[in-house]
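step 3/5: co-fold with alpha-D-ribofuranose
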Amino acid sequence: MTAPPRIVVVGSVNLDLVASGAPLPKAGETVTGAVFSRHPGGKGANQALAARRLGVEVALVARVGRDALAEEALALLRAGGVDLAGIAVDATAATGVALICVDPHGENQITVAPGANATFAPELLVLPPADAVVCQLEVRPPTVARAAALTGGFFCVNLAPAAPVDASLLARADLIVVNETEAAFYGEALRTVPGLVALTLGGQGAKLLRGGAEIAQATAPPVDVVDTTGAGDTFVAALVVGLLEGMTPEAALRFACAAGACAVTKAGAQSSLPSRAEVEALLAR
Ligand code: RIB
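step 4/5: write tokens
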């Protein structure tokens, strides 16, 4: 029996403070009637735990503050068996916080106060051995570029939230994942990269492209949407797991769409991440 792949995620840890059930406010507007909850989150932490729940070995390399929010933000990762030896504590910054509003249809708005995620400088990065490295842009792009340079294995970058990056980072990536907003931000640059580009289309599913040409597409299984927070992170993790496990691009994309669909059926980011059995049950439905 071969050992499961090992993934290292270099990224963010946040505590998500969530107000659910009221309409999303417009600029300058106050809305009321929401219900408050708090959940561990952060795109890096979510992707790490999502991959772990799908059955692979995962280590998270990230930065938190020396405060009470940190333990709460790391609790589900710890309970889920994510290797946290690479978590550094910054005594001068707060743990990252995301302020999230979720409307009655499950759509969200997120403002992040990155705190210690923003002090994760490239020279602080120590990368443990891995079959794949997965990054997002909630830590500094130069830190992501350093992660790309340090790994000889599979490298995936989820360009979320969209921010300027060097063309060399895009050229190094074996897999880039973007949603439609992010794809519009990077524009033509994504058409000429040598690696795979996965474009997520929300409830419509996703496409996989190489050199600007579509090589696979998958629809998302229909589900009742409760909260879309963390669905994109689940998609990223599942696509990487599927490709590392040797699934065909089509099968990996279907697996990732099903995983993302599972994640929207529950509230919260990490609290909604599906197990492998849940994803396979949805795929078989
Ligand atoms: O992708 C969802 C995540 O984005 C949330 O958990 C929040 O922390 C923000 O980083």
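step 5/5: annotate
The longest strand covers residues 57-65.
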